[in-house]
Specification:
This protein has 467 residues and is mainly α. The protein is built from 15 helices and six strands. The relative contact order is 0.13.
C-alpha cells in the first residue's frame, strides 16, 4: 500500500478521535464556570452539586483528550517529517505558546479547582475555573493560529528550502484565523451544552434530582441555542472568505464543474461523477449560492474547471481538484445538522421556559440522541475544511504528497496505524464506561464526608496513635 494514503488515514482517524474531546472540554468548562458563579452569588446548594457533578465528567473528558492529543503530535515526527521541517519555524512559536502558556495555565488551575474546594477562598476558587476556561480557549486559539497558516500562509519567507517566519503578528492577523476561531469556539460551546442538556434530559426522564437537572437543562439549552446561531452566522462569513482565499474548495462544496449562472443557485442534493466531471439530478434553491458567496442576490461563481486552469497557470501542471463527493456531502451534513441543532435548541428553550419538559417525554428522549449532533457537525466540518484544501497541505506552498516522511515504509505506517487505533479503541471504551458510570450514579451527587485532618504531633494525634 501507498505510505501516503496510510499516513493520511492515520492522521484523519487520530485527529477526528482527538477532536471528540477537545470541544467538549471547552464547552463543559464554560457551563461549569457559569454554574459555580450562580452558586457563588446565590448560595444555592443545588448549583454547587451541579458544579461538582459536571466537573467530574469534565475531568474524565479532559484526561482522555490530553492522552489523544499527545499521540497525535507523535505523528508529525513519524509520518510527516518533511512537513515538520518545512513549517517548523512557523509552527514552532504557536505550538510552544500553546503548550507552555495555555495548556500550562489550564492544567495548573484545574488542579487548584479540584483540590481547592473548602480550602481556597470562594472567590479565588471561582476564579480558578474561569481561568481554566480561559486556558482552554487560549489553547484552541494557538492551535488554530497554526492551522490557519495551512489554509492561508502569511508572515513567512523561503529560507534554504524552508518556510521561515518573518512576521509573527501577520499570523495573529491572518483573516483565516478570525473566521475559523469563532466558528470553532462557539461550536465547542454548543458541544458541551448539548451534552449537558442531553444528560439532564435523561436524568429528568428517570426522575433523578428533577429540580436540580431542570436548572442544568435550562442553562445548557440557552447556551446551546445561542452558540449554534452564532456558529451559523460565522459560518457564512467563512463562506465569503473562501471565495477569495480558496475558491476551489467553495466550488467543490457545490460540485460546480462549470461556471454558474448569475445569480447562482445552491445545490441541495445531486449525483456527482468525478471521473466524468459531471453533476446531475440536482435539486437547487435559486439565488442561494450568490447569497452565500457574495452576500447579495447576484454574482457568478467560478467552477472547478475554470479554477483548475487558473491554478495550472499559477502553480504548474497537476490536479488541483479535491475529493468532490467528500467535500460536497460533508458541507451539507454540517449545515443540515447545524440547522437541526438550532431548531432543537429553540424548542428546548421554549419548553424549559414554560416548565413543560416532563410533559414532552418524546422530546426529552430525543435530547439524549441530540448529544451526538454537534459531534457529527464538528467531524464533517473538519473533513470539509481539510479535504477541501487538497492537494495542498499548506495552500499554494506545499503539496500533501511532498509532506510525508521520505524514509517511512508502508509497513511501518500500517503498524503505527493499527497500534494507535487499538489504543484509541481502549481509551474510548474506558471513557464511555466512566461517563456512563458517573451519569447513572445518584450517590455521586451527595456531598463527600469531610474528614478532619489531625496533626500526628499534637495531643489528639498522639492519643489516636496510642489507641
Amino acid at each position: 500500500m501507498d505510505p501516503l494514503i496510510l499516513a493520511r488515514i492515520q492522521f484523519a482517524s487520530t485527529t477526528l478521535f482527538h477532536y471528540l474531546f477537545v470541544p467538549m472540554s471547552i464547552g463543559l468548562a464554560l457551563i461549569i464556570a457559569i454554574m459555580q458563579t450562580i452558586y457563588y452569588r446565590t448560595g444555592d446548594e443545588k448549583y454547587k452539586k451541579l458544579t461538582k457533578f459536571w466537573g467530574t465528567l469534565f475531568l474524565i473528558n479532559f484526561a482522555v483528550g490530553v492522552v489523544t492529543g499527545i499521540l497525535q503530535e507523535f505523528q508529525f515526527g513519524m509520518n510527516w517529517s518533511s512537513y515538520s521541517r518545512f513549517v517548523g519555524d512557523v509552527f514552532g512559536p504557536s505550538l510552544a505558546i500553546e503548550g507552555l502558556l495555555a495548556f500550562f495555565m489550564e492544567s495548573t488551575f484545574i488542579g487548584l479547582w479540584v483540590f481547592g474546594w473548602n480550602r481556597l477562598p470562594k472567590r479565588i476558587h471561582l476564579l480558578s475555573i474561569w481561568l481554566v476556561l480561559f486556558g482552554t480557549v487560549l489553547s484552541a486559539f494557538w492551535i488554530l493560529t497554526a492551522n490557519s497558516f495551512m489554509h492561508h500562509p502569511v508572515g513567512f519567507e523561503y529560507f534554504e528550502g524552508r518556510a521561515q517566519m518573518n512576521d509573527f503578528f501577520a499570523l495573529l492577523k491572518n483573516p483565516q484565523l478570525w473566521v475559523q476561531f469563532p466558528h470553532v469556539l462557539f461550536s465547542a460551546f454548543a458541544t458541551g451544552a448539548f451534552f449537558v442538556a442531553g444528560v439532564s434530559a435523561w436524568k429528568i426522564r428517570k426522575k433523578q434530582q428533577i429540580d436540580m437537572f431542570k436548572k442544568s437543562f435550562r442553562i445548557s439549552i440557552i447556551i446551546a441555542t445561542l452558540s449554534t446561531v452564532v456558529v451559523l452566522l460565522v459560518g457564512h462569513q467563512q463562506a465569503l472568505h473562501l471565495m477569495t482565499a480558496q475558491p476551489m474548495k467553495m466550488a467543490a462544496a457545490e460540485a460546480l464543474w462549470e461556471d454558474s449562472t448569475d445569480p447562482a443557485p445552491f445545490t441541495v442534493v445531486a449525483k456527482i461523477n468525478p471521473d466524468e466531471k459531471t453533476t446531475t439530478n440536482q435539486i437547487q434553491i435559486p439565488y442561494m449560492l450568490s447569497i452565500l458567496s457574495f452576500n447579495k442576490f447576484s454574482g457568478q461563481v467560478e467552477g472547478m474547471n475554470t479554477i483548475q486552469d487558473h491554478y495550472e497557470e499559477k502553480y504548474g501542471p497537476g490536479n488541483y481538484i479535491p475529493p468532490v463527493r467528500t467535500v460536497f456531502w460533508s458541507f451539507r451534513t454540517m449545515v443540515f445538522t447545524g440547522t437541526i441543532m438550532v431548531l432543537v435548541g429553540l424548542y428546548g428553550w421554549y419548553l424549559s421556559r414554560k416548565n413543560k419538559l416532563e410533559q414532552n417525554p418524546w422530546f426529552m428522549k430525543f435530547m439524549v440522541f441530540a448529544i451526538s449532533l454537534p459531534f457529527i457537525a464538528n467531524s464533517v466540518g473538519w473533513l470539509m475544511t481539510e479535504m477541501g484544501r487538497q492537494p495542498w497541505v499548506v495552500f499554494g506552498v506545499m503539496k500533501t504528497e511532498d509532506a510525508v516522511s521520505p524514509n517511512v515504509t508502508a509497513g511501518q505506517v500500517l503498524f503505527s496505524l493499527i497500534s494507535f487505533s487499538t489504543l484509541y479503541a481502549i481509551l474510548a471504551g474506558v471513557a464511555i464506561y466512566l461517563f456512563v458510570k458517573k451519569i447513572k450514579t445518584d450517590a455521586s451527587l451527595d456531598e463527600p464526608v469531610e474528614v478532619e485532618s489531625v496533626d500526628p504531633f499534637d495531643k489528639e494525634g498522639v492519643d489516636i496513635a496510642t489507641k
